[in-house]
Amino acid sequence: MVLSKVSTVVRKVASKVLDLEQTGLNEQYKMIKEASRNSKFELEVEELSQLIKLLREKHAVDSIVVAYNNGSLLISSNGSDLKEAITGTAMLSYIRSEIPKSESVFIKKSKGWYMLYPFSKKVYIVHAASNLHNVELKAIADDLESFLKKHSD
After folding, report:
1. Residues 89-118: what's their mean pLDDT?
2. What domain of life does the UniProt record list for this protein's source (predicted)?
3. 70 — phi, psi (to 5°)?
C-alpha cells in the first residue's frame, strides 16, 4: 500500500519535472502508421529500374545505388550515378581495411544519412533523411537479389 502511494507520487513528480505527456500514440505516429497500412507495394515488376524506384518509395529513402565491389554501377534510382558507386565502394573498402568485421557504415551528413551496406558481392548505397536499421537495408538487398535471381534464368 505504501509502496503504491510512493510510486504514484514519484510518477507525478517525474511527469511534472520531465514534462511527460500521457502515454499513447502521438498524432504523428498515428499518421505514419495509417499511411503505411494504406500503402501496399507490389514488387512483381519486369524491369530492374522499376523495382529500384519502388524500393525507394517503399523504404522512404532519397536514393538507392547498387554497385559491384569493384565500383561498377549495377543500378541507381536516380539514373546514372557512377561517381556515387565508385565513391561508396572505395569508402567501404577503406573502412573494411581499418575495421575488417564492419557490417554496415552509417555516415551522418548535414542533410540526412549516407549508408553503405555490403551484400552478395555488391554494395548498397542508400541516402535518406533518417538512418535505416540493418534489417531494412537487408530487406532492400534481399528484394533486389531475388529479382536478379528470378530474371537471370
Report:
1. 93
2. Archaea
3. -85, 0
Give the pLDDT mean for 6-23. 65
CB atoms within 10 A of CB 131: 16
Q: DSSP assignment, residue 71?
A: S
Nearest to 54 by CA among 46, 24, 3, 119: 46
Strand ranges (E), 5-152: 63-68, 73-76, 105-109, 112-119, 122-128
- Which residue, chain included where needed, has cell 572505395? 90
- Residue ranges of domains in the chain, CATH in brackets: 44-152 (3.30.450.30)
Phi and psi for 82 in degrees, rounded to 5?
A: -60, -40
Pairing verdict, β 63-68 and 122-128: antiparallel
Q: What is the mean pLDDT of the chain?
A: 84
- Give CA–CA dist 72/75, Å, rounded: 10
